[in-house]
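4.2 Preliminary Data

To establish feasibility before requesting continued support, the project team ran the inverse folding procedure on a target of 156 residues. The structure was first converted into the token representation described in Section 3, and no sequence information of any kind was made available to the design step. The complete token record follows.
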């Protein structure tokens, strides 16, 4: 019998301060990389509720959620890590967020698997940080002048 493919909604917090982006630094068998705080929406949660919960779990911060910046779809079998993340179809919602309280980067009480630390990365250094999704590297580095559509389609 063929394995059933999974569809998952995921929310991501885009937190920018002083020309830097707040990211999770992760490490696995392929090396270190960076991603935005956030994660899967649970049944019965709105996207905003899911994002507040995920940010608290991963980085121990409270955020004010702003506008929806982008939506992307990710089909794992079409990208370089297909062998590790097979059969995933994820729809990701990227929201601009602001920290409510003074914040020093630190892991929350329920960090992601492979999460090593929470760090600020300069927007012009996203390539060096190996930030994913790759598509957002250029978009986030100049968000004020970006004219990308909200829906980015299937991309990495």
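Position-by-position output of the design step:
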């Amino acid at each position: 019998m063929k394995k059933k493919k999974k569809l998952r909604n995921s929310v991501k917090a885009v937190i920018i301060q002083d020309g830097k982006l707040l990211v999770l630094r992760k490490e696995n068998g392929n090396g270190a990389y960076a991603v935005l705080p956030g994660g899967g929406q649970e049944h019965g949660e709105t996207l905003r509720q899911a994002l507040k919960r995920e940010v608290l779990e991963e980085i121990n911060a409270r955020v004010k959620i702003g506008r929806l910046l982008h939506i992307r779809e990710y089909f794992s079998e079409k990208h370089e890590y297909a062998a590790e993340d097979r059969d995933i179809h994820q729809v990701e919602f990227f929201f601009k967020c602001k920290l409510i309280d003074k914040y020093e980067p630190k892991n929350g009480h329920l960090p992601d698997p492979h999460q090593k630390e929470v760090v600020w990365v300069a927007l012009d250094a996203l390539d060096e940080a190996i930030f994913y999704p790759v598509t957002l590297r250029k978009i986030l580095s100049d968000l004020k002048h970006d004219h990308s559509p909200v829906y980015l389609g299937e991309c990495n």
